[in-house]
Amino acid sequence: MRDLFVALVVFGSLPFILKRPWLGILMWSWLGYMNPHRMAWGFVTSMPVALIVALTTFAAILFCKEEKRIPWTRETVLLLIFTGWMFVSTLMAQYPGMAWPQWDKVWRIILMTYITMMLITDRQRLYWLVVVIALSIGFYGFKGGVFILTGGSGNNVMGPTGSFIADRNSVGLALLMTVPLLWYVRLQTTNVWARRALLAGGALTLVAIIGTNSRGALVGLAAVGFFFLMKARNRFGVILALIPVFLVVLYVMPPEWFERMHTIQTYGEDASAMGRIYAWGNAITLANMFFFGGGFRAITGYGGTDSHSNWFGVLGELGWVGLGMFVLLHIFTWLSASQVIRWSKPHASLTWARDLAAMVQVSLIGYMSAGSFLGLQYFDLFYHLIAIIVISKILVQKELDAMRGQQPALQRDRAPLERDTGRMALS
Question: Which long-range contacts (CB under 8 A, 24 or more apart) does 49-55 make?
Fold first, then answer.
């Protein structure tokens, strides 16, 4: 039944994608994040459903009459250069047998990021993209939260098999990045029951994050919680909403969970933590030895371990220059999100953009903090967050131009960022 359902949804969507190519982005995101075909047991598990959707989307782009243009901003230009750097690094990889399969995954992610920015051209499309991403990953949070609350072991909170987020550490990071997006969808929803369901789903996702037993995700959760409170107007209300979640966790989680989390303070006695430090040292060695880095999966080939860090992973695989570009991608995206918040603040009609930019910043905090201890530097969602901010900024600029005349918003609005608190409505 699962095979038939997934096949019917995928193949049933193709005619609609041919008519409206942007629907292909939604379908591709659903398949890429939720991986429903991997939850089946028959023919659909080996079927290249994502490739079928992508090829259909490309065909639809060729015949679609609406204007199609990639927005060239500082983020998209840098991402293109970064992709070129990754390709050169792969050509010179120290372990080509491991590097080329990873390159085959990464270039497709980057390509679909650009296609996303080409096709998602209005507020409605952007909203549905965020909804699909949030609910696709959130599915594992809802399921995992229920599992934990009914007495399950945290080690069994897992992501989709064969994906970037298959293991508990990776899915913990993905769920951490998704909670702010779920909150944004809730803010944009007017139906009372839908809002309550999204609030409950967010709470279950928090439980699932804690139940992964991932110490990196726990560190990220602390950072996200702090920054979320800094963004919130009704901080007291947020704290009241979080108290029941943590009380339930304290009641449900076994003693082994508390013992594992306590090792964060005694990392010198923990073999896993020392293994991370060993891997980071190997990353520095590779970056110092090779200008373009060791290539994809070089840290694994060199030292037999995962990178255990976004930052050190990029450093070892792409060198110091590659790391610099990776860091700049974060900085540029953050600054653009701050600009969207600032420009939107005086206009009630742009509250949606302000809330979205704020939530993307919270999601980035989770990615940067938890990602310091987990190697997910090529995870789709980070690059989708870049696309979401680029699209949001363009849409806000267009709306401001329509409201204030033809003068470009970038020249018109030069208010300093420090005047903006960046707080969002938490209704």
Answer: 49/6, 49/10, 52/10, 52/11, 52/14, 53/10, 53/13, 53/14, 53/17, 53/24, 53/27, 53/28, 54/24, 54/28, 54/108, 54/112
Q: Is 247 found in the same domain as 196? A: yes
Domain final position from 48, 68, 88: 68
Instruction: Give the integer Cα–Cα distance in Å for 389 and 366.
Output: 16
Q: Both 57 and 79 in a single domain? A: no
Name the domain boundary from 47, 68, 89: 68
Q: For the whole model, what pTM was predicted?
A: 0.90
Q: Please give the tally of structural domains in the chain.
A: 2
Pick the residue with more confidence: 139 or 230? 139
**Residue 292, CB half-sphere, CA atoms under 13 Å: how many?**
15
Residue 264 identity:
I
CA distance 138 to 124: 21
Does 406 or 416 have the greater pLDDT score? Answer: 406
Residues 93 and 232 placed together within one structural domain of the fold: yes
Range of the domain at 300: 75-419
Q: In this structure, are 198 and 332 located in the same domain? A: yes
Q: Which of 72-86, 244-258, 270-284 has the lowest mean pLDDT?
A: 244-258
Q: What is the pLDDT of residue 257?
A: 66
Evaluate if residue 427 carries a pLDDT over 60: no
Q: Is residue 426 part of a domain?
A: no
Please tell me the distance from the alpha carbon of residue 307 to that of residue 280, in angstroms, as a whole number: 7
In the chain the first and final C-alpha atoms are separated, in Å, by 40
